[in-house]
Design goal:
Shape: elongated
Helix content: 40-55%
Strand order of the largest sheet: 1-2-3
Structural class: mainly alpha
Strand content: 5-15%
Largest sheet: 3 strands, parallel
Number of strands: 12
Radius of gyration: 32 Å
Number of helices: 19
Length: 471
RNA sequence: GGUCCCAUCGUCUAGCUUGGCCUAGGACGGAGCCCUCUCAAGGCUCAGACACGGGUUCAAAUCCCGUUGGGACCA
């Protein structure tokens, strides 16, 4: 059994998008499951569109989601001589020929063929010429097979059959000396000994063009697997107008990479009814048998739900780790120096079931920093009225008289005061909530007190009374 | 235009290989109820799909053919 080798081969023409991440993920999962190798290759031969910034963005994106590669990143621009050598070797073996057709002539002939309703492929007129030393501008064309059929036993689509007579002699080396996409891919996949080419199904029709090149070059064929595309809500290919498509944008919006991965893997793959998978489970359970053949619509709502699930169930320490940069960003850098990891974890547990992103979480955590809570005007006006002041005052005295500070004891004290004042739980709870957090919505009151601590709880209640009296 | 791919709730999907257990299951989203100190979370309930038409068969979401509709690639 030879070792499984897969690759992810993005073009560095922008950020790393959702679709690319999913392709990378499926490759990565398969590699890890098979104890194979995951190779990263940057297809940057289109120099007009490729940028270094984009390469950086792609690597950052992959690192963020934790898809680590075993080899590379290799850059195609550093391998151009390799492609030329292979192209020339095909020429020397009579498997490729020089084509001196001018681009404008090709275009004219194509137009004509189109008008007459004929096939628009290259007519092969330079093929019989046998030019050995082209006079000027010339491209090298591959002699594609003209008869027979090319059969792909696809890992996902099963058997796909193409008649070879639809293939034209595609250019492998342009007149400027650069290889074309279909050629450099084959040379790389062959030389890198890729055993399984797992890519988007937009490449499915490229595959019968590539297979004969592998064969002509004398390399063994990899297996192919063509993943369905990801679409936007209007069923068109996912693009910017459907919202954020860069993974890094999701990082910035406060998504956890593990939630992103879990969401993406379920987009096209399933394991019965299971929705939540940790990484090890995914590696163990992943199988091409259960990859969907049809394309899938990206659903931001479900991703948000998935993120909320991870926020609720991940170890608090993990969330704090992911949350810290967001707190810094929000201006809590200084406050962070005065709180313990333990306290932060406690606050995370306090608020997490009402948050869906780390950004949400920052907002929910805000009231627990500092001595004072920032007061929502409307909430203050509504609940901190002069009439509630006596009850709050009584509450403070009650709390102060209690020898222990604990959730259970303070809750008991609170209920007693409410009863004595003839107030329903809710009538006293809302004013207290506003006094403690500045807001009308918060976690359970006594959990809040626990996180604030005895002194700050009393202090904020006192301030609440002042507000109530002066309103 | 040519070639190829695809087709189960609005969306992601289970089921399809090996027809019957499917009056089609789960999840997101939606509606409602319960819980409740607010907001959530959670629990329960409801609405919601086998694209269409032919076959094959005692029996089809499942097999075959066609149609329609989406999509990709080629330039």
């Amino acid at each position: 059994m030879t070792q499984v080798r897969v690759r992810f081969a993005p073009s560095p023409t922008g950020f790393l998008h959702i679709g690319g991440v999913r392709t990378a993920l499926f490759n990565w999962l398969f590699a890890r499951q098979q104890q194979g190798r995951f190779v990263l290759r940057i297809e940057d031969t289109d120099q007009t569109r490729s940028t270094d910034a984009s390469i950086t963005a792609i690597l950052d994106g992959l690192r963020w989601v934790g898809l680590d590669w075993d080899e590379g990143p290799f850059r195609q621009t550093e391998r151009v001589t390799l492609y030329r050598q292979h192209a020339m070797s095909l020429f020397e073996q009579g498997k490729a020929y020089w084509c001196v057709c001018k681009p404008e002539d090709l275009e004219a002939r194509r137009k004509e063929a189109e008008a007459k309703g004929f096939s628009q492929r290259y007519d092969g007129r330079c093929r019989p010429l046998g030019i050995s030393d082209p006079p000027g501008e010339a491209a090298l064309r591959f002699k594609a097979p003209q008869e027979g059929r090319t059969i792909i036993d696809d890992l996902i689509k099963d058997r796909v059959v193409f008649d070879n007579n639809v293939l034209d002699d595609l250019i492998i080396l342009r007149s400027n000396g650069y290889p074309t996409y279909n050629f450099s891919v084959v040379v790389d996949d062959a030389l890198m000994a890729i055993t399984h080419v797992i890519r988007g199904d937009d490449h499915l029709t490229n595959t019968p063009r590539q297979i004969p090149i592998f064969q002509a070059l004398g390399y063994p064929l990899p297996r192919f697997g063509h993943l369905p595309m990801i679409l936007g809500s209007d069923k068109a290919r996912l693009s910017k107008r459907h919202g954020a498509t860069s993974v890094i944008a999701y990082k910035e919006m406060g998504y956890l990479p593990e939630a992103m991965m879990n969401y993406l893997v379920r987009l096209g793959w399933s394991h019965g009814d299971q929705e939540i998978f940790d990484r090890q489970e995914l590696i163990a359970k992943f199988s091409f048998d259960h990859v969907q053949k049809s394309s899938a619509v990206f659903n931001p709502d479900k991703l948000l739900w998935m993120n909320a699930q991870y926020l609720q169930h991940s170890p608090p320490a993990r969330i704090v780790e992911q949350l810290r940069p967001f707190l810094e960003e929000a201006g809590f850098g200084d406050s962070l120096r005065f709180v313990t990891q333990e306290w932060l974890e406690q606050v995370v547990v306090l608020v997490r079931e009402r948050t869906k992103t780390l950004l949400d979480m920052v907002n929910w955590i805000t009231p627990y920093f500092g001595d004072e809570a920032s007061m929502d005007e409307e909430a203050t006006k509504k609940f901190l009225t002069p009439s509630i002041a006596p009850a709050l005052d009584r509450l403070i005295h009650r709390f102060e008289s209690l020898s222990v500070f604990s959730k259970a004891v303070w809750e008991e004290g609170f209920k007693k005061v409410a009863e004595d004042e003839g107030l329903k739980m809710g009538q006293l709870a809302q004013p207290v909530r506003v006094a403690l957090t500045g807001r009308t919505a918060s976690p359970g009151l006594f959990e809040v007190m626990e996180v604030l601590g005895r002194e700050r709880t009393l202090h904020r209640l006192q301030r609440g009374i002042e507000r109530a009296k002066s309103s």
